[in-house]
Amino acid sequence: MSRSKSPADAATPSKTPGSERSVPRRKFLTGAAVGAAAAAAGCAPGSEGGESAAVQTKPRLTWRLASSFPRGLDTIYGAAEVFAERVAKLTDDRFQIRCYPANELVPALQVLDAVQQGTVQIGHSASYYFKGKNPALAFDTAMPFGLTARQQNAWLYHGGGLELMQEVFSDFNVRSFPGGNTGTQMGGWFRREIGSLADLRGLKMRIPGHGAEVMAELGVTVQTLAGSEIYPALERGAIDATEWIGPYDDEKLGFQRVAQYYYYPGWWEPGPNLSIYVNQDDWAKLPAAYQEVFEAAAYEANMTMLSRYDAENPAALARLVEGGVQLRPFAQDIMEAAQTQAEAILEQEASEDPTYRKIYDSWKAMRSSSYEWFSRAEMAYASFAFGR
Questions:
Q1: Which of 66, 53, 30 is nearest to 277 (CA)?
Q2: pLDDT score, position 361
Q3: CB 44 within 8 A of CB 108
Q4: Residue 63: its H or E element
Q5: Could you report the per-residue pLDDT of 30-72, keeping only the tens digit for each?
Q6: How far is CA 185 from CA 6, 156, 268, 277, 378, in A?
Q7: I need a surface site. Which of 42, 71, 96, 288 has the fewest CB within 10 A?
């Protein structure tokens, strides 16, 4: 079949030692933020005309950010833009960050390498893309049957998760900050109906992270493809199925044109965190006020991305269904087998790697306590209200 131009192609050229604080403080919403930004901009109290002594100590910087996502996906790629815009505003444009979509500066799946090597100062990506470098990196993003977006944020910001992940990233000369979350994802697009566990065997599917390992155990042939590569692979039959994110982005990429069945839930990504990476050497050279601004801007990008998806997905899903897409839940035997395999994989990895075990134990404790709490008020409310 000859390749037609995909919607992604039309929209875009292409889809440390522990932190001193585990919780980024939203200084842009506080008096402290005003003070930091004012000092960076030369507007500190007592300055009189022209550039103050304070502003002269704050350099003008232009850094580059490489994203793993195509420009046409305005919410996931847009989180990097939110981050860059906030940094510029809080420093009176003295600290500029130029964002580049996937494959413009570096390939989508080489963003971590680019930051580590200093090719760019900043990256925006999903850490489970790089689990081949260290399996524990997947905890920074999402694990099958793991934490929702709120639970992942709780673990990273308040449960010690961020400090544990910084220890892993230090091996790459990188410091990482949460930089976005999609919320629970859909299970993906399938060219044929999947009615039971047996129907998965022999299927070719694009899926990253530990979810790929689970699917492989269930008989699926898995691939990791960048966002811009998925549509043509699905169109020409190189893959039979793909997962991506959810209705808003999936509609933009046009998957509904080449696959009819849309499955849920994305049990491998119940709350995937994206990360903003910064080269540790470059980070160390930043003035303290710029570091504070950087952290606050990353926090805003994280919260903004999740709320935007929550606002956009409902209408997008309605449009897809109106257009003929067939919604399907994964069969019970698929869910049960996947959960069993997921737990076995996590336990096996933990038994072989002390660092992985340390992170896994922390993450597992958070999952246990979160599930206990969320199963009360949250689940009781959702079970009653959502289906009415």
A1: 66
A2: 98
A3: no
A4: strand 61-67
A5: 344 434 443 443 333 333 344 444 445 689 999 999 999 999 9
A6: 22, 19, 8, 23, 18
A7: 288
